[in-house]
Amino acid sequence: MVNQNYRPDWRDRMGRAVTNHRGLLAVPLVPGHHVIQLQYRPWDFALGLSISIVTWMLLGYWIWSHRSSRRTERASQQPLIPGASAAGPGPSEPAA
Hints:
By secondary structure, this protein is α+β, with helices and mostly antiparallel strands. Helix content is 35%, strand content 17%.
């Protein structure tokens, strides 16, 4: 018996069953020397981790796409060189 509150998410690394004994963890064993390693692996932790990873990826993509669209927008709004038109060089003015 282990002085730890029982939850079904507890696992033994050797595949032995972890059971509930009066609200505490228990691993049935035969008499003798044993080394027991217990792991707590809640399913909701894996779910939360997956949601967090996807959220960070979507946020990164949104920031990247927002920044690249702003760069393209700024490049298309560059001020024209004085005397030049958007259609290109015009015919030269007649001499006076």
